[in-house]
Amino acid sequence: MSIDITPRGYQDIARKIENGERLTKDDGLRLFACPDLAWLGAMADAVRREKCGDIVYYNVNCHVNLTNICKAHCKFCAFGRDAEDKGSYAMSVEDAIAVVEDAKKDPHLAGLHVVSGLHPDWSFEDYEGRLAALHERFPDLYLKGFTGVELTHFAKISNRTVTEVLQRLQKAGLKAIAGGGAEILSDRVRGILCPDKATSGEWLEAARAAHKLGIPSNASMLYGHIETIEERVDHLLSLRELQDETGGFMTFICFPFLPANTPLAKERNLTQTSMWDDLRTMAVSRLMLDNFKNIKAYWVMLTVPVAQIALSFGANDIDGTVHKETIMHDAGATSPKALTENKIIRIIKEAGRIPAAVDAHMNIIEMIE
Ligand code: SF4
Fold this sequence. Notes:
Blueprint: H1 11-18, H2 25-33, H3 37-52, E1 55-59, E2 61-64, H4 93-103, E3 111-114, H5 124-137, E4 142-145, H6 148-158, H7 162-171, H8 187-193, H9 200-212, E5 217-223, H10 229-246, E6 249-256, H11 263-268, H12 275-288, E7 294-296, H13 299-302, H14 304-310, E8 317-320, H15 327-330, H16 341-350, E9 354-358, E10 364-367
Parallel strand pairs: 1-8, 1-9, 2-3, 3-4, 5-6, 6-7
Antiparallel strand pairs: 9-10
Helix pairs in contact: 2-10, 3-12, 4-5, 5-7, 6-7, 6-9, 9-10
Bound molecules: iron/sulfur cluster (SF4).
Iron/sulfur cluster binds next to loops.
């Protein structure tokens, strides 16, 4: 018995996927409109298996958010604060080192993920100095940090080009760029949600500059707020185009918008995305981003159960142990603030896959057969 699960009207897209042909913008729009989630998942899972096999990456890492004081006031953000607000903080070098000392109690800690607010009174050197101090104190830890938004901000406040900023950070120990800040690469959306930070073009340019220097970066998409489906597809196409040009993106991460405590949710009465939307967005991303090897199910925002299911919807990476995540939890993330390595391994194995601990450059440190 042969069973064809392709929904009516999608045979042409199924054929393209089977033949490894590139999907068009129209295909992307049709995939988002496809009501058959199981088929979408099966297509994305088949492509994942072909590209990545059954290995699922995770990392034992620690997030270091140097400050939550931020002048950008993005409407979807519950992390940024003004200096006089309750709960605002700005870490000294010693504070940042203390966070990592604590995380170092885990002997498998392999890397740091350093992203922060755009502090109105900090100079570029304030950020650079903290990064350099972390590198000096923990030279064995892989340093990934700073988004395209932060890099653009550093360039503006220091009268340097993004390339010059990156060269300085590279000297200070930076190995890879974080993927946040892309939100939706549409100037319409950014004009409403975050007019005071990097534009779409500036975010892409920061990634391009990093890739040209041989610094890899991640890419992300924050969806489920005011964007249209067409803007989601255009976002994926912008990333695919830059990846064609540079090949410097390591991983794509889908971030569902978490409304709690955000000005945007209050203003527009927005609710959280459904699991259905999370899984179809994961699957469509895998299918559209044919030149990205890694698609991450970020458990902090998706929740652990949805991230585990997403491993069958195109994802081959589940992020890391994280160690006290704060940015998403300020926005109401209901997931734990950290996961143990054993828990991550169990989640991956339960999904029938092979866990592999990696550094932020996706080098395999240990495979857990
Ligand atoms: S998203 Fe980033 S840049 Fe925007 S307000 Fe929050 S911390 Fe600041």
